[in-house]
Amino acid sequence: MKNYLNQNPVVLKLTILLLAALFLLPLVVTSPTLMQIFILVILYAYFTSTWNFVGGFAGVLPLGHSAFVGIGAYTSTVLLQTYGLSPWFGMIVGGLLAAIVGVIIGLPTLKLRGAYFALATIAVGEGIRVLFENVKQVGPFKINGPSGISITLTENSFTAFQFDTKAPYYYIILIMLLVVLLLTYYMMNSKIGYYLAAGGEEPEAAEALGIKVSRYKVIAMAISCFLTALGGTFYAQLMLYFYPKSILGLDLSYEIAFIALIGGRGTILGPVLGALLLRPVSELTRIYIGDMLPGLHLVIFGLILIIVMRYYPKGLVVPVKALFNRHIIDRFSKPKRIDESTTTEKAD
Amino acid sequence: MIGIIEALINGILMGSIYGLTAVGLTLIFGVMKVINFAHGSILMVGMFAAYWFVILTGWNPYLAILIVVPLLFYFGYFMQSWVIKPIFEAEKDVREPITVIIVTTGIWYVLDNLALMIFGAEFRVAKTTVTGKIVEFMDMYFLLPKVIGAGITIACGIYLYWFLKHSKMGKAIRATSLDREAASLMGIKQSKIYNIAFGLGSACCGMAACVLVPFYYVYPTVGVPFDIKAFIIVVLGGLGSIPGAILGGVIIGIIENVGAQFMAATWTELLLYAVFLFVLLVKPSGLFGLKQDF
Amino acid sequence: MKLLKKLVIPVVVLAMTVTTFGVSQASTTTVKIGNIIPLSGPSASVGIQGKQAREMALEEINSSGGIKSLGGAKLELLFADSKSDPTTGVTEAERMINTEKVHILTGCWNSAVTYPTTQVAERYGIPFIVPVSVRDTITERGFKNVFRIAAKDGWWAKDQFKFLKDMQDEFGVDVKKVAFVYENGDWGVGFAEKWKVFAKEAGYEVVLDEPYPSTASDLTPVVIKLKRAKPDVVFMTSNAADAILLTNTMAEMKVNVKAIISSGGGHADPSFLAAAGKNAEYLFDIVEWETDLNRPGLQETNEKYKKLYGHNMNGESVDAYAAMYVIKEALEQAGSTDPAALRKTLSEIQVCGGKAGLLAYDCVDFDETGQNKNASLVIVQTRTNGAEMDRITVWPKNVRRAGYTPVFPQPTK
User: Fold this and answer.
1) CA angle B28-B33-B36, nearest 5°?
2) What does residue C209 show for φ and ψ, rounded to 5 degrees?
């Protein structure tokens, strides 16, 4: 991965082209529906990429990440609604709060092995949801229990994090995603990354070599929770309304984890690829067959999950990368004909 | 006071039934090191089978055990050998096959929603000969089907414990769960053991389903609340331990019932998670778990 | 390259075609009605009933010549599954408006979904008809495009207490202690807040105020608590699964109260009566509508519905059914599918009689907030009728089923 950029100039060129295409997209696409779908795809790619810091590199399976989405959304929103503080500020506060909660949870649980850790995170996630459902008010902050919070509509304003059109939301989440991907890249090539890679599968062996794996796992957890919570604030400002079951449920936690696993965890592009493929599949199946036979779309979703795991257990990133190497790099290394439509769809 | 005793006994009764649903989960985990997320859906399949048995024959609901339990055994057996095995094989050398967890989730989505397509979203209650019958004792009331259910749970637990300890197949299962490679070196055929473990785990769900149908409702997603409860129970009791699962179930039942006498029922839900986390932090191997697994 | 195309392009291309070709201009001969309702997930049962009612109304309207002022234009229904999830609801509303180019929207049953979804419709200026979603604030945000047919939750709770008072007067029964048992979702908690206010006003002592998680697998502890609290009257708000568990367990554990007053929802679900059977005897339920109401054409329509789908209509499905006729009437009068014109017509319209007259009251008439000001409620009592359970209208007294005397207090078990 380290040689990713040096490996082939074609890759670099394609990446630049792709980025340009992504940034120009809102100029071409005017339909708010389509923009909303793009935003959600990128948001999910963002969530899965932040999940990846723990789930991908620390060798554990967190299934309660919606808790941190919720902490981010609730923190920025109550600060906005109570004191009129800008969500941008609340976003950072929420992130820090999530990181603290993440560390508190991570310290004892990250020592546990796979299944125990997974179940512990489910319990934490569900516990936090139940807590938010039962509490109406914390000090001066109204969180309204099960009714959730709706954010007061304001004028189009960057400070208030509210926009009439979809394009600003699109750019914000796109930049957030790119930052996270860069962070992922640095992390993979940093000391933490190497230590985690060494300790992911066999922590005992790594500990024996003097690497404090659990300390690095906790650091990874804190980073992951911080970043996930930022996405939570974004979600709140995009939807302007949320309630515990919508952002704190098991459903969201599962979806984040499964997208990453299907795309390919522990890689930079895996989670992005997963979101790019799975979100549209789940949207399209719901839209086109959801009303014919209730439940059929979820059956199809489940089957896709099983089939992908059957043939590409390491995630879809494996075959896609192979195809990419074989068909794009080989081809473009020789002539210089660049087909823009293909590159746009390459990897997002 | 009498309310608390009534709640305590009810907690033990319902808790032992939770225990029965968790036994299958713990058995499968013990052998395969896989959390079966489709567990609740298998319970649902069992409940629909028991429901239709009762509705179509009109016989005593506990006779359904004779049909539903073998049916669920083969259901689990073939699900493992057709769907899970190929994926499991690919990840054989990984200690905890995470891919298999995702696959079981896929199975859960498929089963629950197939049930929705086939049976619709109605809630169904089977009116059986024991439905609504109560046992009265000193101004306290207990549901007869729950009392019978608790009895069946204990019988099942004892039988399974004996089976694993003393039968030839049971020994092979235990050997596989302790050390896969060593067991296969000794001529135990791994994949068959897995099929049987999965079958047994599903059969336990079938048993729990037959116990639940006389006093519960049947619905395509009926398994979901039991699923989460079973996760808590197996960790509390120690993943892989059968007595642990039943005892864990009883503890959860008691917390839920007695706790609710002192606080709103919504808070007992939180209390369950708190107790669960406390156990994880203080004694992660649970009450009866093996040290090596956590 | 070919392989790459095979793998990735179909997904993107599909997404593109779907959105671009879907935009094909609505022809003048069809009016598109977008319906966002839960078709899978926990509220699927009620969503499917709403879909059936809408489809039956649509078939009737279209086969009788469509919208005459639009040259016999046909109505077309588009359904979107909200999965009871607000995010999905919002996304679907945007898709319905921008891609499918619907002229009008209806939905979403779950208040939590209706609340943000109507906000989308408001932003785009598309009229949104809410057949049932009880949260008060849905029509209290100054929106211009949201029209609710059903009563709001404050009205439900108020009528429950009014009913109790009337019954006490009629039968000379003393009621001092009341208990509240409700699911801890948005809906149940909303009701409970109102109950507390009305109980205080009426001078009842609240001996138990118990929210419970609607996904609970065992509600025995709640019932034990209820039994020990010894209330005279229990107020309940439950979804179908928990209504079944609570009702059966209360009957089995011989909880003796003078009356149980429930709030529709789960207690009005057809599968509730089938599942609870005799245990639901004497239960009072507040609903918008009942099959024994003396309304023209009601029996006939209900029979047709029952033949098609195998169960009776209920408040939710009648509201959905009536919504289609309200839309038809609005289209007839507006003579246009332009959203602004439709909105204007809806805010002025009064839909009386005809098939919309199936409702418990005479006319649908929206006030300036978009709330149907005539929406009224009735209370029914559940009684055994042979093997089936019967829901008999008892309140208000002027619509009580002829010859029936309500049982209050209910006999001890």
Assistant:
1) 50
2) -130, 95
Chain B contacts of C252, Cβ < 8 Å?
A: 132, 134, 141, 143
Q: How many CB atoms neighbour CB C303 within 10 A?
A: 13
Q: Distance between CA C125 and CA C129 in Å, rounded?
A: 13
Count CA atoms closer than 13 A to A84's CA, side-chain side.
1
Q: Which of B6-15, C12-21, C87-96, C122-131 has the lowest mean pLDDT?
A: C12-21
**Distance between CA C173 and CA C408 in Å, rounded?**
8
Name residue C174's amino acid: D
* Nearest CA distance, B107 vs chain C (angstrom): 16
Interface of C with A in 185-204 (CB under 8 A): 185-186, 189-190
Query: Inter-chain contact A295–B220, Cβ cutoff 8 Å?
Result: yes
Residue of B nearest to C253 (CA): B141
Task: Determine whether the interchain pair C277/B125 forms a contact, defined as Cβ–Cβ distance below 8 Å.
Answer: yes
Distance CA A291, CA A288 (A): 7
Residues 121-140, chain B, touching C (beta carbon < 8 A): 121-125, 127, 132, 134
- Using a CB-CB cut-off of 8 Å, the residues of chain A touching B35 are 115, 118-119
Tell which phi-psi region holds residue C8, choosing left (phi > 0), alpha (psi between -120 and 50) or beta.
Answer: alpha
3-class SS string, C84-128: CCHHHHHHHHHHHHHCCCCCEEEECCCHHHHHHHHHHHHHHCCCE
Residues 6+ apart with CB under 8 A from C101: C23, C25, C26, C32
Tell me the per-residue pLDDT of B243-290, one tens digit each, with 9 for 90 and over: 888 999 999 999 989 988 888 888 888 888 888 888 877 877 777 766
d(CA C184, CA A147): 10
Nearest to C179 by CA among C165, C192, C162: C192
Residues 22-61 of B with CB under 8 A from A: 29, 33, 35
Interface check for B281 against chain A (CB to CB < 8 A): the answer is: yes
3-state secondary structure of C179: strand
| Band (B74; pLDDT cuts 50, 70, 90) | very high
Q: Reduced to 3 states, what is the DSSP secondary structure of residue C312?
A: coil
C339 has pLDDT over 60: yes
C-alpha closest to that of C393 among C385, C403, C382, C401: C401
User: Of C48, C79, C99, which is closest to A33 when you measure between CB atoms?
Assistant: C99
Q: How many other CB atoms sit within 10 Å of the CB of residue C281?
A: 18
CB contact, 8 Å: A335 with chain C?
no
Name residue, tokens 């978009």: C370
* Complex-level ipTM: 0.83
Nearest to C217 by CA among A69, B276, B233: B233
Beta strands in C218-277 (DSSP E): 233-237, 259-262
- Strand (E) or helix (H) holding C389: strand C388-395
Residue numbers in C near B110 (CB within 8 A) = none
pTM greater than 0.80 (yes/no): yes
CA distance C368 to chain A (A): 21
Strands A137-138 and A141-142, by their bridges, are: antiparallel
Partner C, chain A 145-174, Cβ-Cβ below 8 Å: 145-148, 150
pLDDT of residue B252: 92
